[in-house]
Design a protein that fits this description.
By secondary structure, the protein is an alpha/beta fold. 41% of the residues lie in helices and 21% in strands. The strands form two sheets. A seven-stranded mixed sheet has the order 6-2-1-7-8-10-9. The protein is globular. The structure holds S-adenosylmethionine (SAM). The site of S-adenosylmethionine has 22 residues, from loops.
């Protein structure tokens, strides 16, 4: 898999072998310029609108009512950690905007981060083909997406009002400090830690737990388990944990 993906860079750089690529990558120029492209080609960016949709139902039906009291007078803060091309944070934006319609005074902030500049650029643009947008219910699609004016175009764009609700930022989970000033009420870190070995997963989850407000929720992918890890989290539903110390 790695060979196939890196081959794309060999082609662009007109190099003939992986050892030539390594020499370039670890040279002065490579470490400065190439590392970003390497990250772009090796990361797996599969995502969808309303992926693992039960999580969004849980968010609206359980998390928000549960936090309602302590949200009085402040924003609900949610973080899509490993946001890929934006489908996850825009799904949050749709779901929370709909919730706000029926809950006057409810305000929210969405932070979305990823290591790959390429996916972040696509996310910020918010342009998707019709098949990508298909999981969004027709009513919501009509409300939150604009069709291209080009005849026969297969593309739709997230409306500016929704795009403005998401702050995109580059963040590498391997960094020692995540630089997230405001503690999150909920973090979605789904289908990301699966790519790391167990000790690294635990370190990342520890840092994410530190970014959660007490009583805040961590959503992980359904294939990801935190079993036997020493973390300040307790399971509350499949692929869903809650920070336990200093509870609300
Ligand atoms: C498979 S996608 C998951 C997207 C979304 N969370 C979902 O579940 O649909 C994994 C994302 O994690 C990002 N990622 C991988 N390693 C990372 C790292 N060290 N720091 C931050 N993001 C990383 C990748 O760039 C990719 O966009």
């Amino acid at each position: 898999m790695l060979e196939v993906r890196i081959k794309r860079r060999l082609k662009v750089l007109n190099l003939h072998s992986y050892s030539e690529y390594c020499a370039y990558l670890f040279g002065h120029e490579g470490l400065k310029d190439e590392i970003v492209h390497l990250i772009d080609v090796v990361t797996t960016n599969k995502t969808d609108f309303f992926r693992e949709s039960g999580h969004f139902d849980f968010l609206v039906e359980r998390v928000l009512p549960d936090l309602a009291e302590c949200l009085a007078g402040r924003h609900f803060t949610i973080w899509s950690a490993g946001c890929s091309t934006g489908e996850e944070p825009y799904t949050m934006a749709i779901v929370l905007s709909e919730y706000a319609l029926t809950h006057p005074g409810f305000r929210f902030r969405i932070l979305a981060t990823d290591i790959s500049n390429l996916v972040l650029a696509k996310a910020e643009l918010g342009v998707y083909t019709n098949d990508i947008v298909a999981p969004v219910a027709p009513l919501l699609r009509r409300k939150y997406f604009m069709r291209s004016r080009e005849p026969g175009s297969e593309k739709q764009r997230v409306v500016p009002e929704l795009r403005r609700l998401v702050e995109f930022r580059r963040l590498n989970f391997m960094d020692s400090d995540y630089g997230v000033a405001e503690k999150a009420d909920a973090i979605f870190c789904r289908n990301v830690i699966i790519y790391f070995d167990r000790p690294t997963q635990e370190r990342i989850l520890q840092k994410l737990s530190n970014c959660l407000a007490p009583g805040g929720y961590l959503f992980v992918g359904h294939a990801e388990t935190l079993h036997d890890m020493n973390l300040p989290l307790k399971p509350v539903a499949p692929a869903l944990y809650r920070r336990v110390d200093g509870g609300r």
